[in-house]
Amino acid sequence: MLFERRAYTLRPGCEDGFWQLQRKWNTPKTYRPMLERNIGYFAMAAGPAECIIHLYRWDNYEDGKQRIAAIATPERAEYFAAARNLMLAQETMLLDSAPIAELNPLWNGGDDWLPGDPPFKGAADANTLAISEGVLDFLPGGLAAYWDGYRKLDVETRELTRLGLIGVFFVTTGPLHRAIHYHWHHSWPDAENHRRALAERPAWRAFAERYRPWVIGSHVSYLRPSSVPWMRPLFEFVDFSSN
């Protein structure tokens, strides 16, 4: 399988208009080829302003191409014109899952989640959730050192890292030697408490000190799930027979 992260930078003040277009044009019935593989659409809450992030899980590269081609029809020309008018930039990265099964609980050797039945249904109100997107950029060779260091963490620390974990990925097409971590949290204070709890563990601090010489950059952005229910399938049931 293959993962893709897309980022759309919108013109200031255009986020509501973007979601209105999704409700009108991209319903589970009319946008099914894409939504069948959509992990989620997210709006930036703390990070680059006016940015929409969406994540996909493709069977392979050809699967992604075919699904994108299936929705690029002449009938949708009005949508594409309206959506592009809201945007300043679009970019994409292709990702692979971390080579440690426990860091990808939804997609590993025994599991392959797809939209339909949400894995985190009922965990919290999707309208108030905080999604953290943590990025680590390494020197060449740093990713291998990072994975090796994680494997050596004690059980309790590893369990804490997996609290609210959606998945950990690394970039295969785009900025290389980059790891991206996604967690969900009940609220913004909950996200900060999780970060502090990790930082207070001696094992985590020692781990960070070991991989730090390899790091050339890091940042954390906070996202909120889309206001469109069928575009937050991690937390909402998607009925592809409706709309």
Strand content: 25-35%
The computed structural class is: alpha+beta
State mean pLDDT (0 to 100 scale).
Answer: 94
Helix content: 25-40%
Total beta strand runs: 10
Largest sheet: 8 strands, antiparallel, barrel
User: How large is the count of helical segments?
Assistant: 8
Gyration radius, to the nearest Å?
Answer: 18 Å
> Strands of the largest sheet, in order across it?
1-3-2-10-7-9-8-4
CATH topology: Alpha-Beta Plaits
Distance linking N and C termini? 28 Å
CATH architecture heading: 2-Layer Sandwich
Your description of this structure?
With 243 residues, the chain is an alpha+beta fold. 30% of the residues lie in helices and 32% in strands. The protein has eight helices and ten strands. The chain has helices spanning 15-25, 32-35, 61-71, 77-85, 142-151, 155-161, 188-199, 202-211, and strands at 2-10, 38-46, 51-58, 87-97, 107-108, 111-112, 130-138, 165-173, 178-185, 215-225. An eight-stranded antiparallel beta barrel has the order 1-3-2-10-7-9-8-4. The longest helix is centred in the C-terminal third of the chain and has 12 residues, at 188-199.
